[in-house]
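Subject: for your reference before the review

Hello V.,

The reviewers asked for a structural picture of the protein, and I figured it would be easier to keep everything in one thread rather than splitting it across files. Below is the amino acid sequence we used in the manuscript, unchanged from the supplementary table.
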Amino acid sequence: MKHTIITILICLFAIQIQAQSIVNAAGNTTTIGGHTYSYSVGEMCAVHTASTASIAVTHGLLQPIAQIPNGLNVVWLDSDKINLYPNPSSSILYLEMQTNESATGQITLIDMSGKQVLKRQKIFNIGFNKVEFDLTPFANAQYVLQIHLNKSNQRYSQSYNIQKIK
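And here is what came back from the structure prediction:
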């Protein structure tokens, strides 16, 4: 009888125990240049990039996908529609823009340290415009794509997060 009660108690206790969902040897969260990064060491099974709409995990480094404050005064016209795809991208990133008047533009790709890794001048015509960017020379990481337009003596700016993957 004593063994039966002990066995039942052990079974009930075992049902309440849950395994750790992520195995970490070490980890921390730090803020660098106004951006917060969480990292973990010891997840050797994470050797590829996996992502959802809100987070990307690359080699054990957690990378939240959120709008990054970049100090720009963001002003954009509702009439100008922008489409960026595919994002995340492993090679070619396409920017499509529908605009109601001609504009001169500057497109800049910036890495997380703030370094400009690509800068391109572009004239956008009335209607549909398509620009292609080759991301293959760049490291697998998160970038900020800044688009600046000059239209009718006004300057408009918009920023987007871009995830480069394998």
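For the response letter, the relevant points are probably these. The radius of gyration is 23 Å. Residues 50 and 57 are 5 Å apart (CA to CA).

Happy to draft the paragraph if you're swamped.

O.
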